[in-house]
Design the sequence.
């Protein structure tokens, strides 16, 4: 059945800016996977947003404060002229033109509004449990709409009391955008939003101890943290390449011997893990969160004792044991746009059955 879908974006930045982290890629890839199979998709996002080949309605207003830096007890806050409330006022206005509305913001308001919409609203929750208010409002939506919540991985779901009610969506990528590289140059990569919870410092320390250069790519969210990390390891060869569009990013990533994934927190998924595998780049990751569910230890990378830099260094020394072709094959098996589209359609069908 053809669905008319409205995607309402994350509230922390325009699509294409990198401020929305992995959600930006998720929205883009999910929209593409559904358009390819004939569904209609429209995206509502903060002004300044742009997507490739997907229609975007730009909504003005003040961005939301990032949830991951809040504590469990943080009260709900909305700035004046909130872009979040403006996006959801628009969604409410046009809801009759759509069969399903999908929310991508990790925010209280869309969850709270769910029962007030006539068109069913489903939520792709992009991070693990962070605040009591969010957990409670998700739980409340689930009471009335048991199918309405999806997450990326089991480990992410496990951070919530309602884990068994979550659909596990994984993620999916247009793998034609990533070129397999069989013969890498000497060097490692680190990819992601540069902020303390991503623990770039561990990757820099491991690269320094391994005597290898480290290519760093991604949105520089916390400049002080970045400067402090570089000054902490003066012997490291760190090359910051910026936040690049996929094509330019993968041209650098594919040349590397491995991607280091060093999250301090429970990473919901780890889009960067799939991007590396798609290029044939083995992944060395802490055994924590989404990446630990994706990397096949000893086959497509190495899983390391969390926060152990010496574990990273040992894994780097054992990269020759990993077959780069096996990395690309895993991406094709589980994380293509087709695989994502299948899982999304299954979820939507369950949401619409209960509506
Ligand atoms: N914080 N308040 C809020 N809302 C979001 O949608 C949000 C966020 N922090 C991070 C974030 N989204 C995304 O970068 C991650 O979910 C990937």
Sequence:
């Amino acid at each position: 059945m053809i669905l008319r879908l409205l995607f309402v974006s994350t509230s922390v930045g325009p699509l294409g800016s990198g401020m929305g982290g992995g959600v930006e890629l998720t929205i883009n890839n999910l929209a593409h996977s559904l358009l390819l199979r004939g569904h209609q998709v429209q995206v509502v996002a903060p002004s300044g947003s742009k997507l490739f080949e997907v229609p975007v309605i730009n909504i003005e207003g003040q961005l939301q404060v990032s949830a991951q830096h809040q504590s469990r007890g943080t009260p709900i806050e909305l700035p004046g002229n909130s872009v979040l409330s403006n996006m959801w006022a628009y969604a409410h206005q046009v809801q009759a033109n759509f069969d399903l509305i999908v929310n991508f913001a990790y925010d209280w308001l869309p969850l709270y509004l769910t029962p007030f919409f006539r068109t069913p609203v489903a939520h792709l929750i992009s991070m693990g449990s962070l605040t009591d208010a969010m957990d409670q409002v998700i739980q409340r939506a689930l009471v009335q709409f048991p199918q309405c919540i999806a997450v990326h991985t089991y480990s992410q779901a496990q951070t919530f009391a309602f884990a068994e009610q979550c659909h596990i969506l994984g993620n999916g990528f247009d793998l034609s955008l990533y070129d397999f590289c069989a013969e890498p140059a000497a060097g490692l990569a680190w990819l992601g939003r540069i902020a303390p919870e991503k623990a770039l410092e561990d990757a820099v320390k491991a690269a320094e101890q391994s005597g290898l250069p480290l290519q760093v790519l991604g949105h520089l969210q916390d400049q002080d943290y970045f400067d402090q990390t570089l000054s902490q390891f003066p012997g490291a060869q760190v090359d910051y390449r910026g936040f690049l569009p996929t094509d330019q990013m993968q041209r650098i990533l594919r040349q590397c011997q491995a991607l280091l994934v060093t999250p301090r927190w429970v990473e919901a998924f780890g889009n960067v893990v799939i991007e590396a595998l798609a290029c044939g780049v083995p992944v060395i990751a802490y055994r924590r969160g989404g990446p630990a569910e994706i990397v096949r230890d000893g086959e497509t990378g190495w899983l390391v004792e969390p926060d152990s830099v010496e574990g990273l260094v040992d894994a780097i020394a054992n990269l020759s044991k990993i077959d780069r072709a096996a990395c690309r094959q895993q991406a094709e098996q589980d994380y293509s746009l087709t695989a994502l589209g299948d899982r999304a359609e299954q979820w939507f069908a369950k949401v619409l059955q209960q509506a």
Residues 337-354 form the longest helix (18 residues). The mean pLDDT is 96. Residues 10-12, 20-23, 64, 66-68, 105-107, 126-127 surround 7,8-dihydrobiopterin (CB under 6 Å). The CA atoms of residues 59 and 87 lie 6 Å apart.
